[in-house]
UniProtKB/TrEMBL annotation:
<dbReference type="GO" id="GO:0005829">
    <property type="term" value="C:cytosol"/>
</dbReference>
<dbReference type="Pfam" id="PF01168">
    <property type="entry name" value="Ala_racemase_N"/>
</dbReference>
<dbReference type="Pfam" id="PF00842">
    <property type="entry name" value="Ala_racemase_C"/>
</dbReference>
<comment type="function">
    <text>Catalyzes the interconversion of L-alanine and D-alanine. May also act on other amino acids.</text>
</comment>
<feature type="modified residue" description="N6-(pyridoxal phosphate)lysine">
    <location>
        <position position="44"/>
    </location>
</feature>
<feature type="domain" description="Alanine racemase C-terminal">
    <location>
        <begin position="256"/>
        <end position="383"/>
    </location>
</feature>
<dbReference type="InterPro" id="IPR009006">
    <property type="entry name" value="Ala_racemase/Decarboxylase_C"/>
</dbReference>
<comment type="pathway">
    <text>Amino-acid biosynthesis; D-alanine biosynthesis; D-alanine from L-alanine: step 1/1.</text>
</comment>
<keyword id="KW-0663">Pyridoxal phosphate</keyword>
<dbReference type="InterPro" id="IPR001608">
    <property type="entry name" value="Ala_racemase_N"/>
</dbReference>
<dbReference type="GO" id="GO:0008784">
    <property type="term" value="F:alanine racemase activity"/>
</dbReference>
<feature type="binding site">
    <location>
        <position position="325"/>
    </location>
    <ligand>
        <name>substrate</name>
    </ligand>
</feature>
<comment type="similarity">
    <text>Belongs to the alanine racemase family.</text>
</comment>
<keyword id="KW-0413">Isomerase</keyword>
<dbReference type="GO" id="GO:0030632">
    <property type="term" value="P:D-alanine biosynthetic process"/>
</dbReference>
<dbReference type="InterPro" id="IPR020622">
    <property type="entry name" value="Ala_racemase_pyridoxalP-BS"/>
</dbReference>
<dbReference type="GO" id="GO:0030170">
    <property type="term" value="F:pyridoxal phosphate binding"/>
</dbReference>
Amino acid sequence: MTETAAVPTALLRARAEIDLGALRANVRTLRARVGDLAVMAVVKADGYGHGAVRCARAAVEAGATWLGTATPEEALALRAAGLTQRALCWLWVPGGPWRQAIEADIDVSLSGMWALREVTEAARAAGRTARVQLKADTGLGRNGCQPGADWAELVAAALRAEAEGLVRVTGLWSHFACADEPGHPSIAAQLTRFREMVAYAEGQGVRPEVRHIANSPATLTLPETHFDLVRPGIAMYGLSPSPEIGTPADFGLRPVMTLSASLALVKRVPGEHGVSYGHHYVTPGPTTLGLVPLGYGDGIPRHASGAGPVLVDGKWRTVAGRVAMDQFVVDLGGDEPPVGSRAVLFGPGEGGEPTAEDWAAACGTIGYEIVTRIGSRVPRVYVNEEERG
Ligand SMILES: *Cc1c(COP(=O)(O)O)cnc(C)c1O
């Protein structure tokens, strides 16, 4: 294994190990599901907390040909790091860096007339054709252009801008609301609406390079949604979109992030000893406590208080009392592992450690949030950076 450590002493406290070999294998597994279709590796929010640039590079090595981000700044950062693949960013506000995106050959998503106006102005100023993808709201009720008159107006205006050489409409796309809930009636309804909106735009003369709507759950379970390209995020990082559709192993996926810390203290305490702020945990009898130097300042949810599982010295322990900003405590039940022993919060689960899904269940959230919120104070350590064999 190759390791890159930016701040060695920080690693003594805690680390998020990112297995790029697992990420590449996950991308290959996803590609095998979609045949010849293109895969857009979604690396928004710093690659769901895993590091956008490293993950984008690994995904490209494994055959992803597109990169997807939410904000334009995230896409520009990929370009600054030397990634030249097709890239799409979809979350714009007025005054955004349209011109920089055009000059960096980044596809920009348009959900309404205001965005088309801004991008055509920027294209004119840059003297270049902007690559734009029209986003349809097929039922998510979030970003995207409403069907009917709004869509007709956006399509017509985009075609006029295309005729002037200011834009090229490279994509027609949308996003699901409930693809992770098998059989949810909105899935079929959104798919029908998407087909109608694509057919309308193509009937008017739009010739997109790609049409796409599939996120991870749709990529994994709904082949009829794949069109020309799929946009997996969470599956690439080895997590299942929801326990309802299966475990990562059910889909041949392996979690990429392992979060661990060194015990900062191990000590004996008597019974009836209050633990952490508010004394929400009181030792049931004489025991030993282990201090884990991670807290909500590192992205450990405070909702994990009294609930989050941790593997210490071969046994699952539970967060005792409240998670504080920088630390939490586990009751070691009388065991005395040496101070400095590794406490593993989550990982692939193959070494008996909990998974991000276990943390999600303990905190009443989803695996996405558990990995994405791990903060910048936790150094990322990249393993299996090099392709072997
Ligand atoms: C986040 C996101 C994705 C990826 O979603 P996953 O469920 O993580 O696969 C795809 N498309 C859009 C528009 C997104 O915002």
